[in-house]
Amino acid sequence: MRMNRLTAWSTMLLLSLTLAACGGGSSSTPQPSGSAAQTESGTGAQDPEALAAEIGPVKQVSLGEQIDAALAQQGEQLFNTYCTACHRLDERFIGPALRDVTKRRGPVYIMNVILNPNGMIQRHPVMKQLVQEYGTMMTDMALSEEQARAILEYLRQVAENQ
């Protein structure tokens, strides 16, 4: 089945917004784990990774010390299918470059951006800043948690091979 231009454009826009949430340009400063970020409600400070766990379906991610090559290969295929409409590894495009996103953002944040971009855009200060910076919102691609984990593993692999 062929997608019409409007559907293709909508898909690309949604994808760019979703991945834009993964990391930003030079004005986006990652907070180290354990540092505080002001929550939207202003009720207190919270670690960006912990806030992401409150917003999205992923509460924690177990990462192996070594890259799972088979999972990363699946992730590369998914990345090429769903992400490249808006993201490049090494250059800003519709969304931010993603080669080093795993160095800027934690795994819970990355997976929850992929799985729940709308919730992250509404409630996470880093995502709000990225939407403002890029002028576009990330699209919800309706990926499974397993697919998001594979994309995360691919991004870990490309960051390691930098």
Task: Explain what the structure shows.
- The protein contains eight helices and two strands.
- Helix 5 crosses helix 8.
- The N and C termini lie far apart (38 Å).
- By secondary structure, the protein is mostly helical.
Strand portion = under 5%
Order of helices and strands: HEEHHHHHHH
Shape: globular
Q: In total, how many beta strands?
A: 2
Report the oligomer.
Answer: single chain
Largest sheet: 2 strands, antiparallel
N/C terminus separation = 38 Å
User: Spans with pLDDT under 50 lasting ≥5 residues?
Assistant: 6-44
Strand order of the largest sheet: 1-2
Helix content: 40-55%
Based on CA atoms alone, the radius of gyration comes out at 15 Å
> With helices defined by DSSP (H or I, 4 residues minimum), what is the helix count?
8
> Would you tell me the overall average pLDDT?
79
Task: Please tag this protein with its features.
162 residues; mainly alpha; two-stranded antiparallel ribbon; 8 helices; globular
